[in-house]
Amino acid sequence: MDGSSPATQVIGILGGMGPAATADFYTKLVALTPGRRDQEHLKTVIWSDPTVPDRTEALLGRGPDPTPWLLNGCRVLREAGATLIAIPCNTAHAFVPRISDRAGLPIVHMIGEVAQHLTRRGPSLRTAGLLATTGTVRAGLYQECLARVGIDVLLPDRTSQANEVMTGILAVKAGKRSDAVGEPLARAAHRLTDRGAQVIIGGCTEIPLGLPPQAIPVPLIDPAVVLARALVRRSGAR
Amino acid sequence: MDGSSPATQVIGILGGMGPAATADFYTKLVALTPGRRDQEHLKTVIWSDPTVPDRTEALLGRGPDPTPWLLNGCRVLREAGATLIAIPCNTAHAFVPRISDRAGLPIVHMIGEVAQHLTRRGPSLRTAGLLATTGTVRAGLYQECLARVGIDVLLPDRTSQANEVMTGILAVKAGKRSDAVGEPLARAAHRLTDRGAQVIIGGCTEIPLGLPPQAIPVPLIDPAVVLARALVRRSGAR
Q1: SS3 B213
Q2: How far apart are CA B181 and CA B212, in angstroms?
Q3: Same domain, B165 and B84
């Protein structure tokens, strides 16, 4: 933004899933906005409702449907003046088809943005490894979006998914930041790169909080960064 | 919070002053909330409006009054369901007397909370050094609140205020995170500890982002942390 053409979008962040990931996402959005002073940054409203029922439990048929909570959040953001909605939670994207018609605002689709981002890395990228919640994996969100751009998704086996990926994600949600978090995630990532993954998608917003990029031998894609860049582009603050 | 008594408060954060400080404040609030899973965290709504006119410029009579922007933010937070308001910007507290009657919600006063916090450090604490914007210093916010609890405030001299403190704050707002930010702030802090300051108050939310606690020989008080702890206590999430 050059100061003469202020951004007209008001970013609505449907957050709280989890709250640490929401804070991290807003931090990244601010850092990636090229403002030199406060007044060049983006107007943003954040609804952070950590009481939204667990998305993975719902997708596995073991818990309540979070759709009403998500629709309530969209209403709050709309009434607060947001002009578009970003959801910094991968698993919640499984519910986007249920809310998009009723949200009243465009939803910038994080996983669709990741697919577009990966195509920009060039045609030699054919295989991406996915670290995500069991809910995201079962819902097939990345598999579907990446298939459309010709990229295969490699998944952890059942044991690694349960004992390494979910253990790491839940440890981040519980506020742990030690090696106890990063090591199981790094082991799961290495199993995927050994099988040919050319990038690792940190497909749960908690994963980049627990897994340092230097712990794996290929690029770590952070969907939160990809989404933040997409918002900056769309808002005209570039 | 023990899970059986969920917090009933909805935290409203009047932010954007600046946006990086708002992101940092929400990160601290989440980290200081003792939840073990998402659902134990606090419902929070954040209105981050970086277009609020510069608070220091207004206090020095060189820019527009930010009061209408602050009242608009209070309205958004109230309509979104917030039950109390926190303002993670020290300088904006100079305008609290103009908005508190019309905000429609209680404002948890960051500087008042810092005064209470300092009294809990014991009666030997008599002198605090203040690093803050020129607007905060001129408005006398800390001087007034700390005088009420019997603590003197030491201020940088005019040259240090302009060339070290404001230079450091504006560098953080511009996204700089290098030694170029920390060194002038640390020099200003050392001048105050040389004169007898027993603690340094990082009295602008940008300062703890640029000044590492280990760079100064006395405790660095971060008002954002003090405010976050006050919110956690009041919300019942302890």
Answers
A1: helix
A2: 10
A3: no
Across the interface, whether the CB atoms of A38 and B31 are under 8 A apart is answered no
B224 residue type, one letter: A
Q: How many domains does chain A have?
A: 2
Calpha distance A192→A160 (Å, rounded):
10
Determine, yes or no, domain membership for A169: yes
How many Å lie between the alpha carbon of B80 and the closest alpha carbon of chain A? 6
Give me the domain span that covers residue B94: 11-109+225-235
Instruction: Please answer whether residues A205 and A89 qualify as being in contact, where contact means their C-beta atoms are separated by less than 8 angstroms.
Output: yes
Whether residues A90 and A117 share a domain: the answer is no
Q: Cβ contact (<8 Å) for A76 and B76?
A: no
ipTM of the complex: 0.89
Question: Which chain A residues have a beta carbon less than 8 Å from that of B40?
Answer: 50
Buried b or exposed e, range B112-142, using 16+ CB within 10 angstroms? bbbbebbeeeeeebebbbbbbbbbbbebebb
A135 contacts on B by Cβ (under 8 Å) = none
Q: What is the pLDDT of residues A96-153, one digit of tens each?
A: 999 999 999 999 999 999 999 999 998 999 999 999 999 999 999 999 999 999 999 9
Q: Is residue B5 part of a domain?
A: no
Residue A57 sits at the chain B interface (C-beta within 8 Å): no
| Chain B closest-CA separation from residue A216 CA (Å) | 26
Q: Tell me the two tokens of residue B8.
A: 């009933």
DSSP E strand stretches across A146-228 = 152-154, 199-202, 220-221
**pLDDT tens for each residue of A27-86:** 999 999 987 777 788 999 999 999 999 998 999 899 999 999 999 999 999 999 999 999
Q: How far apart are CA B131 and CA B182, in angstroms?
A: 12
d(CA B227, CA B116): 11
Q: Are B88 and B12 in contact (CB under 8 A)?
A: no
Spatial contact of B72 and A10, defined as CB atoms under 8 Å apart? no
Check B45 against A6: CB less than 8 A apart.
no
As beta bridge partners, residue A84 has A11
Residue A204 among the catalytic residues: yes
Q: What is the dihedral of CA A165, A171, A177, A183, to 10 degrees?
A: -30
Q: Is residue B69 within 8 angstroms of chain A, CB to CB?
A: no
Q: Which position among A89, A172, A211, A227 bears the catalytic label? A: A89
